[in-house]
Amino acid sequence: MPLLTPSRDVQRPAAAGAAAPAIELVNVSRRFVTPEGKAMTALRDFDMVVGQGEFACVVGPTGCGKSTTLNLVTGLARPSAGEVRVMGQPVGGVDPGVGFVFQTDALFPWRSVLDNVAAGPLYRGVPRKEAYEKARDWIARVHLAKFEQHYPHQLSGGMRKRVALAQTFINEPKILLMDEPFSALDVQTRTLMQDELLALWSGTGASVVFVTHDLEEAVALADKVYVLTAGPATVKTVFNVDLPRPRVMSEIRYDQHFVEVCKVIWDALREEVQIGQQRTMDSGH
Amino acid sequence: MPLLTPSRDVQRPAAAGAAAPAIELVNVSRRFVTPEGKAMTALRDFDMVVGQGEFACVVGPTGCGKSTTLNLVTGLARPSAGEVRVMGQPVGGVDPGVGFVFQTDALFPWRSVLDNVAAGPLYRGVPRKEAYEKARDWIARVHLAKFEQHYPHQLSGGMRKRVALAQTFINEPKILLMDEPFSALDVQTRTLMQDELLALWSGTGASVVFVTHDLEEAVALADKVYVLTAGPATVKTVFNVDLPRPRVMSEIRYDQHFVEVCKVIWDALREEVQIGQQRTMDSGH
Amino acid sequence: MTDMTMPSRAVPSSEDIETAARAALARRKRLVVGLRVGILVAVLAGWEISTRLEWIDPFFFASPSGIFSQIAIWITDGTSQGPLWEQVLVTLEETVLGFLIGAVGGVACGILLGRNKLLADVFSIYIKIANSVPRVVLGSIFIIAFGLGMASKVALAVVMVFFVVFANAFQGVREADRAMIANAQILGASPVQITRTVIIPSAMSWILASLHVSFGFALVGAVVGEFLGAKKGIGLLISTAQGAFNANGVFAAMIILAVVALVVEFAITWVENHLVRWKPTPFHEQT
Amino acid sequence: MTDMTMPSRAVPSSEDIETAARAALARRKRLVVGLRVGILVAVLAGWEISTRLEWIDPFFFASPSGIFSQIAIWITDGTSQGPLWEQVLVTLEETVLGFLIGAVGGVACGILLGRNKLLADVFSIYIKIANSVPRVVLGSIFIIAFGLGMASKVALAVVMVFFVVFANAFQGVREADRAMIANAQILGASPVQITRTVIIPSAMSWILASLHVSFGFALVGAVVGEFLGAKKGIGLLISTAQGAFNANGVFAAMIILAVVALVVEFAITWVENHLVRWKPTPFHEQT
Amino acid sequence: GGMEKQIYLPAVLTERLGYFKDEGLDVELINSRAGVEAENELLAGAVQGVVGFYDHTIDLQSKGKYIESIVQFSQAPGEVELVSTKQAANTKSFADLKGKTLGVTGLGSSTDFLTQYLCQRAGLKAGDYTLLPVGAGNTFVAAVKQDQIAAGMTTEPTIGRMLKTGEASILVDMRTPEATEAALGGPYPAASFYVQSSWLAKHRDDATKLANAFVRTLRFIATHSAEEIAEKMPADYYQGDKALYVKGLAEGKAQFTPDGRMPKNGPETVLKVLAAFNKNIQGKPVDLAKTYTTDFVDASR
Ligand SMILES: Nc1ncnc2c1ncn2[C@@H]1O[C@H](COP(=O)(O)OP(=O)(O)OP(=O)(O)O)[C@@H](O)[C@H]1O
Ligand SMILES: Nc1ncnc2c1ncn2[C@@H]1O[C@H](COP(=O)(O)OP(=O)(O)OP(=O)(O)O)[C@@H](O)[C@H]1O
Ligand SMILES: [Mg+2]
Ligand SMILES: [Mg+2]
């Protein structure tokens, strides 16, 4: 099976430099204090390496720690132990090269769609006129041209998500983190957005970490799929997906290779899924 | 093809009474004022009839008007024209028999998971002890027993959605409206929740309107699938799905009938999808 | 930005809907104005009758007719300190100055301390101490420090306004949604840009709420300042009337103050409506 | 409820993390207290030196040493009106009563008007008018209406508190998330239950913010009331000291007021911390 | 004005000496910020008696409110027109204050009427000077220091304080009966104890006892030195500067009547002053006999 190489990713982090991986998590743990006052481990001994220009997808059961991982990479949260590096540098604060599509709504409710999308360039000192031109362009790309003047509360859930995508894409980040960005979209819009994302990614050579629940989506998009365990998240397995690029989303699902890859990952996962399921059921009832 | 009957649903509303349909939308329109001051039509000449004990799914492109439709049924919003009836009665305000899982987060952030779930019974005058017992039971059913004392901001996106589900299910509503309830869940949790939903539904004989982006999910769950058009939403087609019940979610996807049904609806839709796509692209660029 | 709805069988055109919505708005407006006027008339009539029947003593509580004729005299003949509009202008000037300085200072300090936890921890205790100082005592200290001119009244208005605005601006900043701040940060906003484009807009309803109440306070500050020593102003008018056992004069001056307050209030509301156009209408208020 | 984080290579145990977090907290606390004391000492020293060098006139502005010895005298020998604690108690009683009445009234009216648009439209104008009435004038009216006892001071404290609390409670109610209200409605909440379980919790930070500032205001109200006429209380202490050119006495009384205000402030903060435990820590404050 | 003011000293002194108790009276002294307030309280029934300036009885009569002075504390206002040291060189009399700003405690107060009357006697017309309400105490001091007013009328302890620092000197002294005669053309009864006439009609016993207590105090003042009197006063009243307090007391002691009787021609002088400037009074008949009574002091031992 040449398309797929299950491999436990244990590369040690390379020294900082031109060839440093875009994102590195080394032995990272993250604990929270629960309301009962006990420490709860969300991430444990977590290792992840995303090379420059690489597209990594992360899948795992809900509540396992995917969003927490992305938060650590942005610098919004700090690890309880271990180290997080971006472009070879330990993460200190928020890096201007990082773009992040939040899982939950984070649009500015007092700004129209246009102003929301233009926010990034304006923050980064792009002249007004240029920023708005760019914003209009991106709004059109997410098919909201008619809604430029709407405020977020006047949009549907999927439309708000598209605004968030435009808001992030417009900055052309070198590192793009996305937390279930397409889950609120219908199939055709999602396909369009996926194509848009791949085009953006191949154009700018950005490194992407993409969290999703949809294994097919993960396989369709990624170079590497990280599968996380339930409970305190560790990396269960990393799969390398070497489907040829460029990939066209509306077609790839009918590709024989693709279907095989999905099936293999599913088979490899089934066992873990059942363990996880059993565990939640035990703790549940 | 005996399993599937494409049919334009044009039944006239029956007189109010014992046999009245659970939900009826007759010729409903809903307009909004856009920020430019123009009137925008979200729903136009919308007809829908959901019989008592029926399970209806609604699919359609993002921003077409699905959430708006549900809002009209709850009584939170009122139609610009036409009539909305619940159990044969015109909708005046919020009906206590209706349950609604919102598309966006609407948990009470100052209440723990337990208190959030117990809210419904407590509002309805159930004694404290009983309400909390029931709440614990439902929290276990959505596999959050360990998180009873957590506040919503300490949960992941998927966990919050599960709390919202428990919060609604605990009331055992006669009419259950759900707006993309499972889109934030991973496949195995989703399957569990779908089974839970079907069990609840068959147990109580509730009428369900379920909005989703996932056609397969819609077909797997529903008696009837409403496909909406883009732009101002009207009902494009109503498909009756007569797959035998009880259905088991983890198996139905491999059922030959199921695959055929999905394919037929897809084929029937492809044309419309392309029209819609073309239209948004025209208006977009 | 409101939603337009109308329960009806026939499919109405956009114009129909707009006309109906406008009519409903006008009806409501008439109702509100009617009720307001009704209450006013009832109160005034009750007051006048009670004084006529000597249930309450007009020597202390004045009477609407007496107040009215006092205002008429002031308007036609002027007050003992000069024409009425001059008094109003003097007080208004002090008030507006004090209000602006206090509001700007309060907002600035609120944002500064709200954004910086260390500063907040260190200084909030001193602000609380300052807030417990009786304004009347401060009044005489200000007169000593700033003299009997406008400065001392303005200073008094400032201290009346500052604390209310500060408390709200501070809390408003602390309440800003953390997801939104994080988003701005990641989109590339500097701390100053975050303050300007995220913190201030989200604290805006807090600040505006405090401005509503604090304009009244500024007015009170200015008047108390005039009370303690002044050449002109409504406060002096009140204190003179009080000294002469002229209850009608006291109440008349207070009514003039109320009119001033209402005029400014409308201005603030107007500004507010322009600033919060983005807000959704609550479901239960959609008509 | 805060997040615990610590950048380190070795994997620390839970206890290590907790110890480190506690140590960091203690360090911060020391820093804050140190800075507070530092500022206090600097201000007092500067003040004392300025008066010694006659840059400012201690006749008007007192001096820390003089204030201190005045307080000492009051504590040991009592004041001309009786023992010091009695004055404090009298003022405190008036203040707390006024504060409670004003706060409860403000919250109640705020919620009522915030939940009912028609009431709000009709009555808000009258509340605004009432808020523009100078409190000193009100003071004399209250004395006439309620006599010279405690009631008039309490009433004055009430009107100082009411408007601030009202304005915030009102706006807090209007800001409650409409999705959350809708959810409660659908879960079966009656209007009263919605008010109790959704509106009040979401308006809570608004109300608390106003309570912080308005306790100081209640104190001011009570003191002004005592100023206008009283047998006992800190306000009388101030007015006597003022009349006797005893600047040290004036400032000493104000410091006693500040201490009272701070004690109550800590109580409010304690309550607040218990009420808002559910709140997430802002990202930028997570250590 | 405040209880701590020297012009109202007999009230507090009576209590300190325990004379109320001796008469079997349980008296509470309540401090009021302004005379007007105190009278309002009296009329509203919040208090039974008020120590204040006599002129208010006349003023109130014109408003249909009847109050009567039953014990007259002073025969002179106790007020002094101070002139700023910077102006003192070329200010020898009120006539020299033409074109200047004059401080009074408040418009419509006794200081206002006295100042205007003195100006009139000196031949100044209404537009020749400006009145500025500056209050008493340190706002008055500050007003002089900041040259807001060239001269102003005030009482102890402000007088003593300003004389001591040399910031002002005396232009007209109305602390002794003689000087007051000279300045106003007659005695000017000021601080007095008055009650509502309707109350008096029903409570003649209480009034007698009160009058007895006050008269005793006035005798005490007349027969003791300033130091001895000061000794009896609460420490807070002279906390700032005791020597100054005693000095002021020594100089102003003469304003108090020895027996609580209304000085002859006193009410007429007050009416004359008021009638000239108080719009309330102008054109209204005033029955001076209803504003005071000496029945009670006459009856006291
Ligand atoms: N502030 C917090 N305090 C306590 N626990 C927290 C906090 N934030 C997150 N957690 C816990 O950390 C775990 C991981 O959460 P996270 O949001 O990373 O999950 P996720 O993988 O993104 O899930 P989903 O797919 O549902 O979004 C959860 O169990 C959650 O309860
Ligand atoms: N308050 C409002 N003012 C103006 N337009 C609105 C308002 N609310 C909704 N709309 C518009 O109504 C249309 C339908 O919105 P709705 O939320 O019903 O879509 P939806 O089908 O639920 O989409 P999604 O799948 O993305 O959730 C959208 O075009 C939206 O912009
Ligand atoms: Mg997540
Ligand atoms: Mg929707």
Automatic annotation (TrEMBL), chains A, B:
Record keywords, A-Z? ATP-binding, Nucleotide-binding, Transport
What molecular function terms (GO) are annotated for this protein?
A: ATP binding
Q: Which organism is it from?
A: Azospirillum picis
Protein known as: NitT/TauT family transport system ATP-binding protein
**Lineage of the species this protein comes from:** Bacteria, Pseudomonadati, Pseudomonadota, Alphaproteobacteria, Rhodospirillales
Q: Could you list the residue ranges that cross the membrane?
A: none
Cross-referenced InterPro entries:
AAA+_ATPase, ABC_transporter-like_ATP-bd, ABC_transporter-like_CS, ABC_transporter_ATP-bind, P-loop_NTPase
SUPFAM superfamilies in the record: P-loop containing nucleoside triphosphate hydrolases
Keyword Nucleotide-binding assigned to the entry: answer is yes
What family name appears in the similarity comment?
Answer: Belongs to the ABC transporter superfamily.
TrEMBL record, chains C, D:
Q: Which Pfam families match?
A: BPD_transp_1
TM spans (from-to) = 31-47, 96-113, 125-148, 206-230, 250-271
Give start-end of the signal peptide. Answer: none
Q: Which coarse location class applies to the principal site listed for this UniProt protein?
A: membrane
Tell me the keywords, alphabetical order.
Cell membrane, Membrane, Transmembrane, Transmembrane helix, Transport
Subcellular location per UniProt equals:
Cell membrane
> What is the name of the protein in this document?
NitT/TauT family transport system permease protein
This protein's species is Azospirillum picis
